[in-house]
Structure formats: structure tokens, C-alpha cells
Predict the 3D structure of the following.
Amino acid sequence: MKLLGSTFLFAMGMVGIAQAADLRVEVKTPEGTPLAHAVVTVSGPGKATGVPANAFSMAQKNKTFIPFVMVVPVGAKVAFPNQDEIKHHVFSFSPAKRFEHELYGKGETRTVVFDKPGTVAIGCNIHDRMEAYIRVTEAPLAAVTDEKGVAMLSGITDGEHTVEIWHPYQKGDSDTPISRKVSFSGSGITTEVVEMTIGQSPRAPQQQN
Amino acid sequence: MFTRLRTKLTFFYSALFALIMMTVAGGVYSMISTNAIGSARAQLEATSAAFQRLETLQIEQLRENVQISSRDFGFRSAISLGPSEPETIRSALANLRLRMNADVAYVIFPDGTSISDTLSAALPASMIDTLSDGNEHEGGVVLGQSAYRAVLSPVFAPNLVGWILVGNRLDDSQMQALVTLSSIPIQAELLLLEGGRQIPVARSTPSAPEPRSAASAPEGQLLQQTLRLPGLAGDEMELELSFPRELALQPMWSLLRVLAVIGALGLALLSIAAWLLARSITSPLARLEQATRDVEDGTYQAVELSSSDEIGRLANSFNLMTEAIEERTHTITHQALHDRETGLPNRAFFEERLTGLPPSDVVVSVVGIDRFQPIRDAIGYAQTAELIKAIGARLGLLETVVPPADLSGGLLAVAFQAPSDEDAENWLAHLLDVLEQPVDIAGQKIDVMARAGFVRNSVTEANGPTVVEKAAIALDQARGAFAKTGLFDAKSYGDPVANLSLMGDMLTGFENGDIFLAYQPKLNLQTQKIESVEALLRWRHPQRGMIRPDIFVTMAENTGHIRALTEWVAQRAVADQRTLADSGLPLRFSINVSGRQLGDGSLIELLDTLEVSSPDQLCFEITETAVMGDPDNAVSDMRAICEHGFSISIDDYGSGLSSLAYLKMIPAQELKIDRSLLLGLAPQSREAFMLRSTVELGHGLGMKVVAEGVEDVETLEILRDVGCDLAQGYFICRPVPLADLTDWLKQERPAFLPEARLSA
């Protein structure tokens, strides 16, 4: 939960721009339930500053991928450290990134570079219930909603931006996000409330914190 | 309905048995058919339940297999390649099927495309829509031309990358395997229910599948059990198990056949047994029945029965009864046909035997013992019976055609053959000679005299006398003629029947004048004058001519008509007397009264009705013998006559048994001497002397003396000489009708007696 809540900006490169606005996105179901694990991206006229140097990590702990949903920029290198006593076999058959790291044990880690935008569903071959999603995006700003369904994005330049919201269990096309055009000018916080219909996961994976 | 006990018993026993057998058969039918159908249904249900259980197991197994396969890394890896690599997918499916021993497999991708390794056709979009709700699905489905039991499971990697559908074929062999579970040869059929239609998809019997609707199912002929199977994608399937009812009932029919055979044999045996038993009962009964009929007809025959049961005892009782009846009948018959005292056959017996004989040359004779009553009074009834018996025995020694019979009253009948009447008479004379030999009765010799009347046997005419009666009459005739034998004389016997009808004619005779009174004058010998007349009855019958008064008066007496006759005579005479008196001829009238009427009161009634001015001018002539039967009442009636003022004349005095004792009793004013006293009358004769004495007797008793039957002047003279008062007879005047009498009285005539003699 703490990790889930640690929404981060990977658009660190935008620091230095004097005039910047903030965007607060609230994602909830039509019934009004706050929706966590939604990925919010903002892409605008400004040019992206490239791949940040941040190291991305998706740990395996208690037979759970942590975090459940992670958004990374294209080209990001994500480590998959095993923090369990048992071995895991992390794989993805997603077209955006197919990879497989056969059984590796505690303390070991494997890294994957996600070089194509898209959704990568990650599983463990020996633990069917283990499930995680990495959204690879080209957008300069991205955040994942916390358990209150809120994502805060800051440093948005003036102009019209495309705000996209994606959730791994969203209804309909699982790869196409909800897209909105939002204009920003000057500083201040703009709040966008987004309703999203969630299909029940067939396996109803229980996120274990 | 049944006239024979045997038929009745046999029928009822057989019917009862048949009824029982039919009831048993009905019960067996009902029970077995219920059982058979029940057990067939149970089989169907059991098979259905087994199928359901098996199906559940197989689905479960299939599901497990599918779930395992869907998580197979390699398989998931292959699926995740997507529709762009169909051949890889197909090979993976083939591999999967091989592992799972499945018949069909599909991969369905999230985009709706589907791939199978065996079937080229993609799954219909509607099916995919139904299935792609993220859940597992299972049930029957028709893919291509075959039905399958299938399981659909989503494939996660770890997100949903598609579904796999794996199925096993539900075909004829499955159905055949299914029906082997049942102990009876049932049929199984799998139907797809699609929009109200039933599409056969598999069946246990190899017949061509044909679509049919639920309505056409031959209800009643088939026992059915249906099982709904869930469909994979909406459409349901139905397993239909059926068993022909006929087949279920088959064992029952063979049982019923056995039962029918047993029933038929039993019925035959029972019928024969019942018939035999009934015969053992009814055959003696039939013999008894025949014997009773024989008794009815007069044949007494013992029934011999060896059995000692009720029927045997009945037969014994019957035999005893028959013997008793026979004995009694014999006694009664004997008594009816024999005289009780003499033991000789009686008249009924004799006549019965006689009727059977040819009439022509048979002569019937009745032999009468003279003075039978005095003999009987003398020796007593018992000895008389002995006497008759002895005479009968003598008759029995003779050659007769009918045994001699005792007619009672001292009469015996005998019948014999005689070609002519002379022969018969000779034979009878001989017979009487034999009979008149002295008879020894109780040590005493008794002489009997006998006579015989006879007649030739003939058929009795209707209402006529029988032959025996004729012979008896002939006997009477012979007695009357003082002859030993006499042949029946029909003429002298007359015709009693015709005489009887005469009485019927009498009343009409009164009315039309056939019966009339004739008057005979009486001459007063002193005065030579006619002072009185006697009224005499005359009947001129239109058919029979003049009928003698003694005949019809006697008949009137015997038939009770005498009252009417006397009354008519009295009234007629009174009327005539008045007529004469009116014409200047007053006469004293005498009428005859039957002695039978004296004492019965009828005469007194008559006296009251007579209207006469001077009763002393009417005289009632009554015979002396009239008082002999009942003197007291007769004399009482006579006194009544005198009290009425009428006078009485004693008629026919001197004939028969004249009794001075009676003469003394009768209050008469006149004595009428019978004509027999005038026979051979001559002056100075004994007859004249007797006449004189009689006249004097009459005078001495204060009576006038009348003589009747005077036919010549000599007699008249003697009568005058002996002092007789009145004379009557043909010499004076014959009886004449009233008109002639008047004429006769008025005519001039010479004196009946010479005057000289009178004066002398």
C-alpha cells in the first residue's frame, strides 16, 4: 500500500520550467468507489526529456508482485528482485514485451528493458495467482492512483494536453485508455474526475501487500 | 333355467371356478403389470440417474483436465501468440487433445476469433458472446455434426488471453454403452432442444436419426424417462430413455398363458369331477323320481340303491312308503270293489268287468232271494251275510264270464254266455235249482227261494238304466208276474225319464185345458135322483194321448206336485159346482185327496182358500189306507176338514188291508165300497151277504154307503136291496165333462130301476 501510494513522477527532466500547473485526477467507479491502480498519463506539446535515470523495480514478495501496477517510460529498465524464500519464474507473453526469467531465488534479481509502449502483463509460471502490470508509456508525465483513487501530476506546461487513464481490469479493450483533452495555463491544480467501469477479473487476484 | 340337477351343479361349480380363475388372472395381471412397468420405470430412472452421475463425473474430469491444460505454460505461451499464428495454435490444440483424450478443442481469442485443430468452422459469434463472460462453462453442445460434452475455461497469462473449449463426443456408442448399464434392453436417445424442436444427435439403436416433435412421441406404448442436460451455450439437451411397454409386459403374458392353461385344465377337471359327483347324486335321484312317477301311475316297484347315504336312506324310506301305499291302495281298491260283509265283488266291480265284454252273447242276470228281509230279520245280518256268501260261492261254481257280485239287499248279479234268450232262461232255471238247495248256516239248514231277472248285455244309453239295473227291473217284473225268471220288458217298464218330463207338462196342461175334470153322477137309490157327482181327473196329452190318472197322480205324489194338483182339482170343482148351481142344478161334489197330503198341513191351507156357500155339499174322498202311515196327524187333518164343515168319504173300502180299527178313527160321513166287492154279486150269494154286512157296518157307524163300479141293473137292484144309499158306475153314467153332465142332467130319461121292483 505504501508502495502503491508512492506515485512518482518520472518526468524529472521538466524541473526548471518556471510556469507549471498541477493535475489531480480522481478515478472512481460509476458507483463512486475510488479506483486504485489506474495509470494516468499526460502528454502535451512539450517535448519529453528522455528516459530518466531512475531505476524501476518490481519485487516479488509473499508471492506477490509489488507494485501491482507500475507505469514506466519507454526504454525503462525494470528490475524484478526476488525477496521471497522461494523461487519465481517471472514471464510476460504481452506483445509489448515478451520475456521470461526462469526460476531465480531469493536475493537474485533480473532486469528487463521495456522498449515498446503498451501493456505488459507479468506473471509467475509457478504461481498462477501472481499477477502484475507494467504500463509502458511515451508520455512525459504519469502516475498511478492510490487507494483513494487519486493521482497527482505536477509540472504541467501551458497548453492543451492529452490526459489518458488506463486500468488493467478496465472493460472493453484492455489496451486502449480513456482519453481526455485538458488545457492548462499557469500554475494551480486542475482536478479531473474520471469514471471507469471495471470488469471483474476472472481470477479476482487478491493483491497482497 | 336348468331342468337337471346335474347340469346345474356342473355349471355352477365350473362357473365358480372360472370366476375364481378369472379373478386370479385379473389380480395377477394387475399386480404383475404394475410391477413390470414399475420395475421398467425403475430401470429407466436408475439408468438415467447413472447417466447423470457419469456425466457429472466426466464433466468434472474434463474440467479438471481443461483447467490444468489452461495453465500449462507452454500452452499459454502458444495461445499468447494470438490468431496470427493459427498453425502453432492448432498443433498446440492437437497436443492438448491427445493429452486429454478429448475429441474436440477450440481456442477462442478475446477478439472473438476461434480456432480448432479438427473443425474448420469457427464458433458462432453468438456462442462466443455467451461464453466470454469470464466464467467457466460446461454442458452439451453441437459442433459440426456431432454433439459434445464440453468445458470452456478462460486462459490467463496472467491476464485473460483467451479461452479453450474442450469436448468429448456424445455419440451412438456412448448411448450404446449407456444402455448396457440397464438390465433390460432400453433405448437411449440424445436430443438437442433447439427452439422447441428435438434434434436427435445420438441414439443407442442404429436407426436413421429423424427430427421429431415432442407431440409425436407415442405416449402409452413407451415407458420414458427424460433427463435434461445443461447446454454449454443456452440450448439444452435431453437424454430420452425409453422402453416399450409391450416388452415390459412380456413376461406377464407368458405367465398369464401358463395361468390360462392351468385354468383351462382345472376347469375341465373340475367340470368332469362336478359332473361325476352330480351324477352320483342325481342318478339315484332320477331313479327315485322315476319310481315316484311309477307310483303315480299305479306301479309299485322298489328302488334298489346300494348307497348308505341320505339318498340311500331316502330310497329305503321311499320303498317302505311305497309298500304301505300299495297295501293301502290294495285294501281301498278291494273295499271299493267288494262288499264288506260278504267279501263278494260289488256292483261297481261287476259293471266294470262287464263293460270290457262284447255285449252280444252275454246275458246279465240279477238273482233275488225271496223274502230276503224277513229272512234277514229272522237270522240276523251276520248270518245273512254268510248265507249270501254261500250262495255267491255256488254261483261261482258255474261257468260265468263275470264273477258273481253281491248287489246287497239279497240281490246277486251274474253274467254268462247264452246264444239265445231261451238258452238263458234254461240256464237260469238250472241255476235257481242249484241255489234253492238248502244252505247250511251255523249248523242250520236254511231253505231259500230265488228268482232271476235277466237281460242281454248292451251298451248303456245316456241317462238310461244300466244293464244291471235292467236285470234288476226284470227281476221285479218276474216277481210281479210270480214267475221264477223274467226277461227285461222295456215296454211294461215304461220310460221313467219321460214320466218325469210329464210333470213339467202338467202346469201347461192346467192352463190350456189338457187336464180337466170329468164328473160321474151318483144315483140316490132311494129317490132315484142324481144328487151328487164325483170329480175325476182326466189328461188328454197332446203327444201321448189320454194318460191314466193312476200314472200321473202317482208321479205327482212321488215328485211333490200333488199339492198343486189337489189344489187345482178343488178350485176347479168348486167353480164347476157354482156353475151348475147357477144353472139350477145344485149338486153335492166329491173330490179325491191323496193320502200323502194328510198330516203335512197343506190340506188345511187349501181348505181356507175354498170359497163355498155350503161346505157340506163338498166331500173329500180319502182312502182308508191314508191314515195307516201317520194316524195321529192324518186324523187331525180329517177333523180339520170336518170343522170346516166339509164332509169326508172313505174311498175304496174293502180293498187291500181294511182295518176296522182305522175305520173307527176316521170321522167320515160316507163309506165308499170298493168295486171289487161287487164282483160275482148275485142275489143270496156270499158276496151279497158280505155286501149287506158292510152296508150295515157303515150305517152302524153313521155313514152313508156308496157303491161304485155298477155296470148292470142286477147289481143296482141288489145294492138297493141291501140298503146301499148311493150307486155310481157306467150303468148309470160314465164320467163326463161338465158340459155333457149338464146336458145329461137336464135330459129326460127312464128310471134306472123298475118301479115295480122298487115298490116290492
